[in-house]
């Protein structure tokens, strides 16, 4: 069993209890009085009895490790930090605190359900008090703390068991690194794939995210589809593995990246190629230029886009991800389906990871004492964070990630075109389609899956919509997920009105007073019914950005 820990604090800032499972025995540390430094008591126990141990805490980098760092700094203990606060190593006793969320990126509640272990405990944090003030609630609090520690350990044990069974590996610090480790060991050695750092600027410019567009802001009789495991389904495509080199500037024949000028007919309803306009990703019509994956350019040309290649980069290619994708797909559908879905997707994410890293250094380690570009992460100002370029990163192969993303957009675009030919389309997001069309579905990876029918749909803007189904309203509201909206709210937003909602709990402003109590100030939050999106509004419909004439209008919207 893996060692785990969990810190509970009064008002999230003052530790009052620590649960600790060393892999064999559970032990708790409860604050005894106002003068008791319960966190240091826990750390002292670790230092004396558990040298060399590695402990996991869920969301540790966001919470627990911050409290640990503050306590260790207060007691003049040396700490090394990796991946920001995701991995905190206490130097002298050689004790490491890691964030299990990076390995299993889901809530502890979902994690315990996924791996069918004892469920996460239930506790109303509004009832948290100093232990001697909790009365009969203290035992419920202690049971909650113990269950969180134990259930995390049991779930992580299942993760290790399954990774060992299917890939003969132990977990690494994150799911992405673990997936790359599994691929590297069992399928293809990544050291044999060219990193092509000399061409990385071109690769990054040709790398884009998925499509997310609103076509009609209101509709009825709507079918919702998703492409099953879309990115993993694209692992069967040839990917660049050799050294990039300049090649003959033609669309025909082999190729990896093309610098091109394209002309997309202005009357097209859906643009086929991505383009960055400032911080937004759009799929425009008209004439524009850029760098794209050759497969995406070839698909656009086959649909009727005029493509003029200016320069082309070519590398040897092979479908090296196919076997890994097949194994991950076979693991889907079982008890731990959601984990294997994330695991398969994590590989392409790791291969495309940025080389710039957040690095935290002890003040004495900053060579010449020049603090430019550094800022403190602790109140004692002993540790400072900056960004550094990591050159030797064996798992970063951005050309592979570029190809998988491009292939996913191609397959999604082709599905969109099929839906548009047979009916109306309302909205799409990366691998989803909302349409009146009835499309062919299946259960294999890469097939469309029917998710249900909506009587009405309100598509306000990207990631803000509602579908009215027989079972009620299904809401998607990024940034407002903690606020439940009504159909009337969405009707107001559709009409361009603003709605005001109050959040008295999670969204409230917290003010720490001198006596360390926290007062909650009600905060009103505004959701706007109009605003800049990635298409041009025309009443309740939209059209693509048309380049170059819409550029100034769009940029200033």
Please give a structural write-up.
By secondary structure, the chain is of the alpha+beta class. It folds into two domains: 4-167, Nucleotidyltransferase, domain 5 (2-Layer Sandwich), CATH 3.30.420.10; 174-355 and 390-462, no CATH class. The chain is built from 14 helices and 32 strands. It has a seven-stranded antiparallel beta sheet. Helix 6 (175-186) crosses helix 11.
Count of separate DSSP helical elements: 14
Shape: globular
Low-confidence stretches: 505-520
Proportion of strand residues: 25-35%
Q: Quote the average pLDDT.
A: 90
Q: How much is the radius of gyration in Å?
A: 26 Å
Through-space gap between termini: 55 Å
Largest sheet: 7 strands, antiparallel
Helix residue percentage: 25-40%
Number of strands: 32
Structural domains: how many? 2
Strand order within the widest beta sheet = 8-21-22-9-23-24-25
Structural class: alpha+beta
* Oligomeric grouping of the chains: single chain
Give a short synopsis of this structure:
This protein has 14 helices and 32 strands. The chain is of the alpha+beta class and 557 residues long.
